[in-house]
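Suppose you are handed a protein chain with no further information: no name, no annotation, nothing but its sequence. What can you learn? This example shows the usual starting point.
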Amino acid sequence: MDPDVTDNRDRSRFELEVEGHTAFAAYRIDGEVITFTHTVVPEALGGRGIASRLILHALTDVRDRGLKVIAQCPFVAAYIRKHPEWAALLARPLD
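A reasonable first move is to predict its three-dimensional structure. Written in structure tokens, the prediction is:
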């Protein structure tokens, strides 16, 4: 797991601060299912793999907590398509 990524449960999002900018993956939890709604990476951090780093940590945390994933966020869905080893976490097939 990435020690720089935090789960800000008060704001329902995983966060990664880099150079004074905060990238985040927002979610909502309903029982044993976490729905990733959107991922935001500030323009200043674009193209540096920040979103992938953030989602890798988030999925690792989710797996460790025994939750299932709904990938409403297009980036999370694309990440799981590119890394099918995470598909077992899905609560339902990707759209």
